[in-house]
Fold these 2 entries.
Entry 1:
Amino acid sequence: MTLADPSPWLAVLGRAHPVLLHAPLGILPAIALLEFGSALLRRPPPRGSVLALAWFGAATAAAAVASGLVLAGEGGHANELLGNHKILGIVLGGLCVLTAVLAFFEQRLPMRLSLLAALGVMIPTGHLGGTMTHGKDFLFAPFRELDEAPPPTTVFARTIQPILERTCTKCHNPEKLKGELLLTTPDGIRKGGENGPVVVAGKPEDSPLLVRCLLPADHDDHMPPEGKAQPTEAELAALRAWIAAGAAF
Ligand code: HEC
């Protein structure tokens, strides 16, 4: 790249669009505040400040339009959104310049109308621009996520599953399926093993899933087999309580 090559500089100007556009976004309401605020207070508007702001707004709006056009040329947003944003952005830039010119020639009423029109166009322009960068419905997404909040996790998911995962599923998973017992899914646990159900809801003492863990460690049927990671006393109590309460998933 050389300084004479304009394309990288152009690209940078394009990427400055999201920064540049915020200047008129702040300046237009500031002009409105001075202009209409003083009218409310029955004072003459501070003409010098209004005019200075109006020129500054026009210049930054023009820069925002120019950079926007460059950015649009980079592609990546070739759709209807961009088309509408572009048209509105050019109209908005034009209104900013018009407002400054009318302020310069002291055309109070037309200047105010032009300013109000610019403020009006600013809203959909900004909204479409935001939609392009943040995605559709960005603004109200937090409310939607509130509606779609996941259901509170169950005792099974919170307490029981982690115990089974730590001490049982190395052997009772879809690949190993020892004793034809699958302990990785609720369906597998409901179905039971080669000797039938392993959980009897409400009856811990009749549930092999717990009973086998309570057998003496050297018993042939003890689970998990001797030498493997064993559930703690607290975990056994949790299993018992869960089964006693109905073994819900
Ligand atoms: C190291 C492997 C291994 C681990 C870990 C293990 N098991 Fe087993 N399990 C087996 C084998 C092998 C069988 C089949 C032989 C038998 O019935 O003893 C079996 C059978 C069972 C059965 C009997 C199924 C039927 O219908 O016959 C139950 C119930 C069971 N396991 C529960 C558990 C529980 C609960 C855990 C965790 C606390 C666990 N197992 C951990 C290997 C394991």
Entry 2:
Amino acid sequence: MRVDHDIVIVGGGVAGATAAALLAQSGHRVALVERRRPASPDPSADFDPRVVAIAPGSAAVLAAAGAWDRLPDERLGPYDRMQVHAESGKIVFRASEHGLGKLGWMVEVPWLQAFAWQALEGLAGVELLAPSSVTDYSERTGHVRLELDGGKALRTHLLVAADGARSRLRRMAGIRTDLWHYNQQALVAHVATKRPNDGLAWQRFTDFGPLALLPLPDGRSSIVWSQPERRVGELRAHDDDAFLAELNASQDSPFGETTAATPRYSFPLIRRQARSLVSGRLVLLGDAARNVHPLAGQGLNLGLMDAAALAEVLAGWDGGSDPRRALARYERWRISGGSLVAGGIHAINEFTRAGPGRSLAGLGFSLAGRLWPLRETFVEYACGLDRDSPELARSAR
Ligand SMILES: Cc1cc2nc3c(=O)[nH]c(=O)nc-3n(C[C@H](O)[C@H](O)[C@H](O)COP(=O)(O)OP(=O)(O)OC[C@H]3O[C@@H](n4cnc5c(N)ncnc54)[C@H](O)[C@@H]3O)c2cc1C
């Protein structure tokens, strides 16, 4: 039986496209199937509302995929300090104290995706199928058969589902998923403040939920404010003055009052965790594997660690032999790493919902700030530089 590709990846978001580049660089024949071909970014456009914090380990993974170095400085919001407040307690991190140049960068998702695709266009052994959607798949002896809309069929030795939080392939594979509805939404907007944000990632656990002000390259901040669903509706309906008044009542960042805001968007918050990451020759990656509350800015970072881990375990695979041993290693590795981070984020969000929990969390932050080994461990995990991170990520040290 002729098999068209070693690996087909379904979903060309940042995680899927990065995995495609890393796997193709190892010599595998890769096809990427994506429903919507990403548009070229417009340098004259304002910053997209979908900005994410990218940690140094993830930046190293994106660099290896050929995407990171294409990002112009004007679209990168670096931060070298981080402050997290809960009631009167706080913890402060400085990159220089941990031997790092930066703790991370704020980057627009559409720019990252477009540059990951540009990198793929120049790689041998890659076929880009977009716009194209997978409608069905079936596992056969020694390969997987995929049906695409338009009637095309593909045969592959390995199928990677990187098709996002509501992964259709995960459902078709019968992989069960644990779900937690937070009854919260994340409200996002870009805001100007009295003083420019010069590279501080600031967060406070407010009465309504965690509120972050994260640096954009032009001195404004991107806010992510998780709140009860009903309140998000009200805040989105406010005019700018009323919205800024509410925001200023909850934020006491060093940048002073917020003075202007872009239109506001909101995203429902649901935690999902796939119970297994592998089913036969299908493997889950990125948000298809799990998605997490945005309070720690870890969702895409976890997906990029998946991409690097998958490339690492498949580095010696010849395409023709059975990949399932390598996939089992990937599953053990990424299900434990991802669950630890996701569980920690979940616990903090739940714990800080009520005043007494926030006071205790604040006390914990202040104490942890004084314990050097704890702080160092936290920074290593948050930056993707811990011992459990893929080699590519750790090369950022
Ligand atoms: C408010 C908010 C703030 C966040 N902040 C951060 C942050 O600071 N740091 C961070 O790391 N993460 C953050 N995240 C999470 C991050 O945005 C996601 O984890 C990440 O974008 C997911 O990437 P992905 O490639 O796995 O999935 P997606 O981006 O969802 O990509 C999936 C792709 O699959 C395609 N697709 C779906 N079905 C099919 C099909 N049947 N056939 C073909 N193609 C298909 C889709 O078109 C899509 O392009 C945040 C999320 C939110 C909501």
